[in-house]
Write a structure and sequence with these properties.
This protein is mostly beta strands and about 350 residues long. It contains six helices and 18 strands. It folds into three domains: about 10-125, no CATH class; about 135-240, no CATH class; about 255-350, FlgT, C-terminal domain (Thrombin, subunit H). The chain has helices at about 10-20, 40-50, 55-60, 65, 105, 130-135; strands at about 30-35, 75-80, 90, 140-145, 150-155, 170, 180-190, 200-215, 220-225, 235-240, 255-265, 270, 275-280, 290-305, 310-325, 330-340, 345, 350.
């Protein structure tokens, strides 16, 4: 089935940026790529572009397509077209059965007329779903403004100290029966804005899930799954519905000046594949799919003949790229997709 991406002009800012900075292809890029299960938009972009976050430009996407690029499926053939002034990608004829075949097998497949049935293939995601799925479904960040307003366990059945699967708990703060599924968590490390010193959110230590049995004050809930011991005083928030979004990776149109405020798990350092939180969110224009570059200030230390140390600031170093996949009002989660060194809390996150 032939599907050609419509050639639509980018937003003015992105267009101007691309006009000033031509797209740069990787050395010896392939003329085509057969999409297979397990591919991601980021990975495919990296086969053609030196700067994968410029994916929307090489596809000539508009804003709507960036936020809903359900265009690429296993079996599609991504073709590199260099006949114009600027390289672009388009979709050619689908081949083979990319849900089960490798790229090498697909490359030698002869397309023959046939009648068959199969499951509808899943759209290619932006980044590996297994890297972020838990961070979409679990309450891992609690905004500071919500910290004291959430529901909490005030009593247990038969005065139990510890609860597990199937146990009953009594919860205050559930106003009605509209929300049935809840996540149970324990407040963790506070995340402070390095610029203001104020707590902007708390990491939440995920404990398990619960289902509302009957509303009231207190309401009755049943513990459905307990990953850790659940105690009186632990808190609950509604379980969010989630979807592995396929937003195209793209750079922010506005200027972003943020900081890494946490590395999930309370770690002091992270690296490629780590989940980091930054001190900017929806209220600052941060959205899913934004790609940010991580920078670190550097200082050169010299020791003279008398043993005295002197520090000289040197230009900061850009060392990583991070893909934003979940946003809150004042904070966002990003997956570190490329990194040449360890990520440290306090490093800068800005436009790539």
């Amino acid at each position: 089935m032939l599907r050609i991406i419509s050639a639509l002009i980018l937003a003015v800012t992105a267009f101007c940026a691309s006009a000033e900075e031509p797209l740069q292809l990787v050395d010896n890029p392939p003329d085509r790529h057969i999409v297979v299960r397990g591919d991601t938009l980021w990975g495919i972009a990296g086969k053609f572009l030196q700067q994968p976050w410029r994916w929307p430009e090489i596809w000539q996407m508009n804003k709507a397509e960036i936020k809903n690029p359900h265009l690429i499926y296993p079996g599609d053939v991504v073709i590199l077209d260099t006949s114009g002034d600027s390289p672009r990608l388009r979709i050619g004829k689908s081949v083979g059965n990319a849900d089960t075949n490798s790229e090498e097998e697909l490359a030698t497949t002869q397309t023959q007329p046939k009648v068959y049935s199969k499951a509808v293939p899943q759209v290619i995601p932006s980044i590996p779903p297994n890297a972020i799925e838990a961070f979409l479904s679990q309450p891992l960040i609690i905004e500071a403004t919500e910290h004291d307003k959430v529901a909490r366990i005030v009593a247990t059945e038969e005065e139990r100290m510890i609860m597990g699967n199937g146990d009953t708990a009594f919860v205050t703060g559930i106003p009605d029966g509209k929300k049935v599924n809840w996540n149970v968590y324990r407040p963790g490390k506070p995340l402070k804005d390095p610029e203001t010193g104020k707590v902007i959110a708390y990491e939440a230590f995920f404990l398990g899930t619960a289902k509302l049995v009957s509303p009231g004050d207190p309401a009755t809930v049943r513990i459905v799954s307990a990953k850790e011991e659940i105690h009186r005083g632990d808190r609950l928030i509604p379980a969010p519905s989630f979807e592995i979004l396929a937003y195209a990776p793209h750079r922010p149109e506005q200027t972003v000046a943020a900081r890494v405020v946490g590395i999930y798990g309370g770690l002091n350092e992270g690296g490629g594949g780590s989940i980091v939180s930054i001190n900017r969110g929806k209220s600052d224009g941060i959205e899913t799919g934004h790609v940010l570059a991580l920078f670190r200030n550097r200082v050169s230390i010299a020791i003279d003949a008398d043993g005295r140390r002197s520090a000289t600031p040197i230009p900061e170093e850009r060392y990583a790229l991070a893909f934003v996949f979940r946003t809150f009002d004042h904070i966002a989660y990003a997956l570190v997709v490329e990194s040449s060194k360890s990520v440290i809390v306090g490093d800068a996150a800005r436009n790539p």
